[in-house]
Task: inverse folding
């Protein structure tokens, strides 16, 4: 499974967090997932993509993900799986 994160913050723009989790069976699928994520967030923001391992992802972002999705990640007992989430907050 791959875990990609962008945690973008800029003065006056607020903070946007993109999460992308997908089950990949080989390197070709992993490259496809990365391309899919880049296409979703756009060229500008894709420069900030970080790849996480499962433990780090869950430690830092599990509070933003629903229990059902967390269960699917932990069980890893299904065929295909792709999860995308965007959270934007601006308090200025």
Result:
């Amino acid at each position: 499974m791959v875990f990609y994160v962008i945690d973008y913050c800029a003065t006056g723009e607020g903070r946007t967090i993109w999460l992308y989790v997908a089950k990949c069976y080989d390197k070709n699928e992993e490259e496809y997932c990365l391309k899919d994520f880049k296409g979703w967030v756009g060229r500008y923001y894709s420069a900030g993509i970080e790849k996480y391992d499962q433990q780090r992802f869950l430690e830092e972002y599990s509070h933003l993900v629903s229990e059902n999705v967390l269960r699917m990640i932990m069980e890893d007992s299904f065929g295909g799986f792709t999860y995308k989430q965007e959270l934007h907050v601006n308090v200025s």
Notes: Residues 29 and 66 are 25 Å apart (CA to CA). The longest strand covers residues 2-10. The chain has one domain: 2-89. Residues 2-89 form one domain.
